[in-house]
Amino acid sequence: MKLNMTPAAELDHVLVAIADPTRRAILDRLTRGPARVTDVAEPFEMSLAAVSKHILTLERAGLVRRTRQGREHILRADPRPLRQVAKWAARYERFWNQRLDRLEAFFAQKGQGQ
Amino acid sequence: MKLNMTPAAELDHVLVAIADPTRRAILDRLTRGPARVTDVAEPFEMSLAAVSKHILTLERAGLVRRTRQGREHILRADPRPLRQVAKWAARYERFWNQRLDRLEAFFAQKGQGQ
Questions:
Q1: Can you tell me the distance from the alpha carbon of B3 to that of B78, in angstroms, rounded to the nearest whole number?
Q2: Of B93, B95, B114, the CB nearest to A3
Q3: Does A2 contact B114 at a Cβ distance shorter than 8 Å?
Q4: Which residue of A47, A110, A113, B3 sits 20 to 30 Å from the alpha carbon of A26, by its own alpha carbon?
C-alpha cells in the first residue's frame, strides 16, 4: 500500500498519525526500543483495542513496523517518514526569515498581535 | 484562546490543521501574499462554506490571521507555529542517524523492507 502512495498522500497519513498526542507518545516509547503491543498499551488509561487502533494508524503511516516472533507481535519505530514532515515544514523557513519582521510590525500596528 | 494553550495542545492544533491537503494548499496560497476569502476559495472545487471551515481550522492553529478592511476580510499566513512542527520532527533526527542502518539491516533480514 505504502509503495503506491503519492508523496502528498503519504504526507497526509504521516501528519494525521502524528496529530494525536497518544500516537506521538507511542512513537516516543518505541524510539527507546522495540516493544510488545501489551507493553506499549500499559501506561495508557484506555482499552487495548483503542491502543491497537492507534498503533494501526502509525503502521499505515509507515512510522511503526510489526514483526511476529512466535505468538508475540513486536513493534518497532521507523521514523523515516518524519523526514517528509521536517522537509515540508522547512519549506516555510525562508518565509519565516523574510516575513517575520514585517508580520510582527503588521500585527503590532493592527493591535492584534499575540 | 491560543495564549492559554499548552505547547502540546498547540502542536495538536497545528498538526491537525496541516494534515489536510486543502489546508496546506490554502497556506501555500497565503505565503505568496495576503488574500480575500473569496480569492482563496476560487481555485477549489468546493463550496465557500467548506473553504471557510478549512480557513477557520488554520486560524485556530494560529497559521492564518484575519483582518477586516471595511467590509473585506483579508487573510494572511503566519507560519510561526510551524517552527514547533519542525522542532518536534527534528527530535527524531538523532534517532534516524543512529538507528537507520540497524533498521534497514533488520527489515532486509526479515524480508519485510519497502
A1: 15
A2: B114
A3: yes
A4: B3
Q: How far apart are CA A37 and CA A48, in angstroms?
A: 8
**Beta strand pairing call for B64-69 and A72-77:** unpaired
Written as tens digits, the pLDDT of chain A (114 aa) is 444 556 777 899 999 999 999 999 999 999 989 999 999 999 999 999 999 999 999 999 999 999 998 888 999 999 889 988 988 888 887 776 665 666 667 667 776 544
The count of C-alpha atoms lying within 13 angstroms of the C-alpha of A76, restricted to the half-sphere facing its C-beta, is 19
Ordered alpha helix ranges (H), chain B: 7-18, 21-31, 37-41, 48-60, 82-90, 93-110
CB contact under 8 A, A85 and B85: yes
ipTM of the complex: 0.75
0.80 surpassed by pTM:
no
Q: State the Rg of chain A over Cα.
A: 19
CA separation, residue B107 to residues A4, B96, B110, B111, B112 (Å): 19, 15, 5, 6, 5
Q: Is B104 on the interface with A (CB under 8 A)?
A: no
Considering only residues 72 to 91 of chain A, which have any Cβ-Cβ distance to chain B shorter than 8 Å? 76-80, 82-83, 85-86, 88-90
Q: Which residues contact A34 (CB under 8 A, 6 or more apart)?
A: A74, A75, A76
Size of chain A, expressed as the number of residues it contains: 114
